[in-house]
Amino acid sequence: MTINSNENIDDPESNVPNKVAIESNLPLTPIDIESQKDMESGRYHKIQSLQKWFASRPTPAVRLAILASVYPGEIDPDHLLQLMQIGPKEIDSDISSYVQGKFAEKRTSGTVDDHYGYPNPNTQSPTQAEIENLHAELAEGWGGKVPTVLDPTAGRGVIPFEAIRYGLPAKANELNPVPSIIIRAVLEYAPEVGSIEPDISEWCNKIHDKAKSNIKSYYPTKEKDRQILNSACSYIIRCDSCGGSIPLTKKWWLNKTSKGGDAIKPKYIDGEVEYKHVKVEDVSDNKYDPNDGPVKGGSAECPHCGVPTEEETIQEKLKQGEFEYTVYGVNYESVDGEQSFRAGEDIDIQGIEKAEERINSDFELLTFLSEPIEASSRINDPRNYGMEEWRDIFTPRQLVVHYEYLKAYEHFKSEIKTRYETKKAEAILTVLSFIATRSINFNSRLTQWYDKKGTGSNMFAENNFALKKMFVDNNLAAPRRGYKKCSSHVIESYEDLASYETFADAETTCQDAATLTNKWDYESIDVAVVDPPYYSSVMYAELADVFYVIQKEYLEDIHSDLFESKLTNKDDEAVANQSRFDDIAQGEESKEQLADDFYEQKMEDIFSEIFELLTEGGIMTVMFTHRDMDAWDTLTTALINSGFKITATHPIKTEKSDRISMRGNASADSSIFLVGRKRSHNSDEKATLWEDVKDQISYVAKQRAKEILDSGYNISKTDTAISAYGPTLQKYAEEYPVVNKKGDEIRPREALSEARKAVTSVLAERYLDTEGVDELDPLTRWYVLAWLVYENDTFPYDEGRQLGVAAGIDIDKIKRSTKIWGKSRGDIQIKNHNDRVQDIVLLRNESADNPSSRKYPVNPTDTRFTYTIDTIHALLHVYEREGPRFAWEWMRERGLKSDDAFEIALTALLEVLPSKTEMHSTLLDIISGETGEYLNINTSHIDMSGADRQTELGDHQ
Length: 957
What we know:
alpha+beta, 34 helices, 25 strands, DUF1156 domain-containing protein, SAM-dependent_MTases_sf
């Protein structure tokens, strides 16, 4: 499934292979399966669990990118999989079939590893013999040497760490200090210092014991034999109408189970609220619903007078400090170790109040984590809720607790430095700081109470700082989610990493990736493996500041070079952050365009630097995942402008599939590996006419889509389209520069748009038995294709817009007049008949207010409709509102029996709509019974099981 380049490297005497394995066919399916296994809880790379960072590739995909980029010539699939530690040792042939066979088998018992018959590959390092054989093979193609691998945007360092596990010298750079600390632990301390047990556990215990005694008084209890584990907290604001207390809770669950669970039953008396703990299965009050809290949507209804407080008012009250903390539930442990729940009481608030008194009287605490918050609306700026400094994201008790653990660490720091040699002392102190950042992640006002587990989630369950109206307060002195639990997790991760044998060294640096020639020599790198920043998906530096400020407190004297600034470097970060241009955009230059331009220029600068560092003919493999075409457009333009040609592409699953969730179906699960080589300086770059290459691009995209569908490769329809981006961009790069007849530049976006149109036609041909969909009006065709491709009513805006181009309609221009779609959190949500059709009963009733034609553009009393989808939506409404007999007459009056477009659209919708939707059910009723006899539609040639049938064909269950 790779389009290969047959060109040789320009310099015939180059010590670079003419071809490497990644420029040939690869066994993608078993690697895809391993990547999916790798993303299951507890199976991912130990670097990921050492400390929180954002976005990481599964280990199998990383190993593939490294090994296939350095291996000269083509590689036998079994040899590659064996090197990647995939498959049982006793099997040495057709490992791909073995892995796929195990994937197809249902696991009935035991672990995943038991089922597959071999251990988790990322826990397995190659043997000394395998390394020696690999290096001999590499030397044959690389002029007698082992190639050096660069990762210029290394994040946590998974790519360079895996490189040195295979004996490949590595160079790693990362701009942000937070992951740079992880890199030092992974690439320096783990290989050089090795295990730091039992020493680190000794210091953990000492730190914990000292801090525990200092925070005990902040968690008072009525019963001396109970210990608070964590508390479910919220805010109380006052109703502007009656002055009553409004708890900002959406629901009252503490611990929700399949049989019921623990919840709070509020009691509202004289404008105040009291809490009572209940076992839901024991509640006999039919009026009580633990899912029914005062907060509904963004507003909160006063439980005393019923007057709602709107979202904007709630936000302003929180911003101005017009609130009180409330503890509505507590998870505690009794003396016999049993965990239970109770309602929040006054004594719980006393602990918070005592902490507040401490803060106001302790000078050192007054400045603890007082750095300003720098965040954008892109990640839910906490400043919108009055959190101006990083200390503000904690309750007074949380802040005091984190401070006491820092002071306990500081108390023992000098002793640690004295007892051990410098490198080991640094390793111990650095790993101890990871425990602090993990503790913060689980203990803040931005950490959601997670009722399905009866405890808190983590601050970055989503990559933003969204306010949590129901949050957790963890007692770090307690066992459940406390300091000791965090420490065992971190130490285990480090010790596992230290146990892995490495066969080469790595150099590290922390700087702008566009300046790496200041650090390393020109043409000193053979292979670059790049996992670039995710365009606009993750605002790394803004998110990292919360960890930076606490690690600065812990490590400023140990890693002084990483903590020279007040906060992280956001100016040099390669992301498309529109918020940075709020005050700059003017005229025709929108902030969106300025953000795109910045990202493109930044990536071009980084790729240009890689170009200079690579040996002549060197290899660059870029892993990229994004569903927004603008991201691909800017990245590809940057790659080409920096002097690279694309020699091969591969799709590989690198994101966790979620076929149940709505957003999972709309997301891109696959990455594209773009393989680039340095273009020769004398390359002929005569412009290619777009009209001459357009059909070729369409053909390439269609072939890739058909190839994937025919291969049985497990991939969603969305990802089928994205997988075609690779060969499309390769073809575009071969023809670059591309211009139209007027001489205007054609950007990659145009080629990708053509590819999406081509892939959509392949998908329609493959999955739709109904003929004639291409003959429908563009809006109806778009509606049908949207359900076909996304199998849901919600999907990314950019993809929906591109699908409109493929269908021949500008969806932005028809949005207001048709109301066929709306926006939901930045995504498109296509509408059904209930959202679009005026009420026929009200239309006939002269005394009733007529429904708004602006809000509901389809009038069911019309005899002709602009779009066929309007006809179908009107029929659905009439059938549900007036019944089959009326609907029969309604159809007869409009001659729908002989309307070919109507029949095509109706049968196509029966194919693409999920079978559980109301529309699918009603359409089935319409083609049955009396109305069905009238229409007399032959459906024997189609499968009417809806999108359930499609999902089975394409998903990775």
